[in-house]
Amino acid sequence: MQERLTMQIAKELQEILGTKDVAVLIDAKHLCVSSRGIKDNSSATVSSFYDGKFLEEKTKEEFLKYVSLKTEY
User: pLDDT tens digits for 4-56?
Assistant: First the structure.
């Protein structure tokens, strides 16, 4: 389900921005698991979508480097 949502977001961004050069990374908590049943607060899923220039390894690595920065304001 999350992979489909990631792709939908990416496709909308491509259309709005007028480019195939789009990367989407989603890190989501599973609220259904944490609020019901086993009460697991640590369950999470990461999904990604890369197209255009982001399919090139160097560009993808640079994107992931920026995403992992712990910037404080």
Answer: 889 999 999 999 999 999 999 988 776 665 556 566 666 677 889 999 999 99
**Tally of structural domains, the chain:** 1
The number of residues making up the chain comes to: 73
Do residues 27 and 46 lie in contact, with contact meaning Cβ atoms separated by under 8 Å?
A: yes
Q: What is the pTM of this model?
A: 0.75
- Helices H / strands E in the chain, number of each: 3, 2
Of 25, 24, 44, which is closest to residue 33 (Cα–Cα)?
44
Q: What domain range is 9 assigned to?
A: 2-68
Q: For residue 6, give the CATH number of its domain.
A: 3.30.1130.10
What residues form DSSP beta bridges with 24? 49
